[in-house]
Design a protein that fits this description.
With about 70 residues, this protein is an all-alpha fold. It has a domain of about 45 residues. The protein contains two helices and no strands.
Length: about 70
């Protein structure tokens, strides 16, 4: 069975799919940035000040990044 669809319906479907892909890409980028921030905060650098709180600061920054408004359709 072959499904016949109107070309305008296919364009709408393609547009909707592209919008969803853009949203997924933006969310993956935000997750990537948050993970990078966390990884930098967890690094044990010899130049870091004793008693510093880079992990807590990184966790807060990552949390903020993940709560940032995402682009919507």
């Amino acid at each position: 069975m072959t499904e016949h669809t109107d070309p305008s319906e296919r364009e709408t479907s393609a547009t909707a799919l592209q919008e969803r892909m853009n949203l997924v890409e933006a969310r993956v980028a935000a997750l990537t940035e948050a993970l990078q921030v966390l990884a930098r905060g967890l690094e044990d650098l010899p130049t870091a000040e004793p008693g510093g709180k880079p992990a807590a600061e990184a966790a807060r920054r990552a949390y903020d990044l993940l709560l940032a408004p995402q682009p919507g359709p």
